[in-house]
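User: My instructor asked us to take a sequence, write out its structure as tokens, and then describe one feature of it. I'm not sure where to start. Here is the sequence I was given:
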Amino acid sequence: MKKETSKKMTIDDLAIMVAKGFDGVYKEIGEVKHEMRERFDDVDKRFDKVENDIAEVKENLASTRMDVLGIGDKFVSNHTFDKHLIRFSDLERKVKTAGKA
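Assistant: Let's start with the prediction itself. The structure tokens for your sequence are:
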């Protein structure tokens, strides 16, 4: 047995029901948009931190590179050192030989 409804549904009633349904959907979409906006703001903050960290690493790397390149200016190469050691040994031998004569 079907229950009889006491009131007939009109087009206006249907339009009101549909409008209320859409209002609920719009409200949910608004909440989701707000939540997404907050999450994107958090992601943007994290990207800003990563970019700053990368910039700092680049600066440190450039500084370290300059330090490494500067080491060559402070020290002589093995080849040059060996050449000077041989010349110094030759000079010592000549001085010792000249002192005996």
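For the description part of your assignment, you could build on this observation: The chain has a mean pLDDT of 87. Try explaining in your own words what that tells you about the chain.
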